[in-house]
Amino acid sequence: MSPTLLSFSLGRSSEMIVGVFLPIVLLAIYEFYAKYKNIESAQYHRYALRAQPTQKELTESLNSGQDQNTYGYKVMGWAFISIALLFFALGFWGGGGGIYLFTMGFLILALGTYAVRYASNKAKAQVLK
After folding, report:
1. pLDDT in single tens digits along all 129 residues of the chain
2. How many CB atoms are located within 10 Å of the residue 113 CB?
3. CA quadruple 36, 42, 44, 48: dihedral, nearest 10
4. How far is it, in rounded angstroms, from Cα 119 to Cα 61?
5. In 3D, which of 71, 57, 78, 80 has the Cα closest to residue 126?
6. Per the confidence metrics, is the pTM higher than 0.70?
């Protein structure tokens, strides 16, 4: 439709560049205009009033985040252990490169074991608090 209305067309890469950067440029222009005119949205003011958490909410959020971090360490540790077992299995079929697969498997196994133990110790420390 563009070639018939505007008498030119863009290539695929040009269309992608315009599609990415034109919205960014337009938003930046509006932001500078709004800052210059000191315009603030009423919706932003409602959000800012609602977004201020209480001390209880902050404490609950912090505890929840620590629980999620501990769980994340545990999941990553078990994932590393699983990957290490795959490396060990591949080491048997690796031929001359099997020693490298076993070595990497051992290193990944050590990292996974450390992560699981770290998560377990951290979980115990949180329970004792």
Report:
1. 566 777 777 788 888 898 899 999 999 999 899 888 888 878 877 777 776 666 666 666 556 556 677 888 899 999 999 999 999 999 988 778 888 999 999 999 999 999 999 988 887 776 666
2. 14
3. 120
4. 19
5. 71
6. no
The string of pLDDT tens digits covering residues 7-28 is: 777 788 888 898 899 999 999 9
- Say if CB 112 and CB 120 are below 8 A apart: no
C-beta atoms surrounding 34 within 10 Å = 12
DSSP letter (8 states) at residue 8:
-
Decide if 76 contacts 115 (C-beta within 8 A): yes
Print burial letters for 71-110: b (CB count within 10 Å at least 16), e (below 16): eebbeebeebbebbeebbeebeeeeeeeeebbebbeebbe
CA 103 to chain centre: 29
CA–CA dist 42, 33 (Å, integer): 17
- Residue owning tokens 């009033």: 49
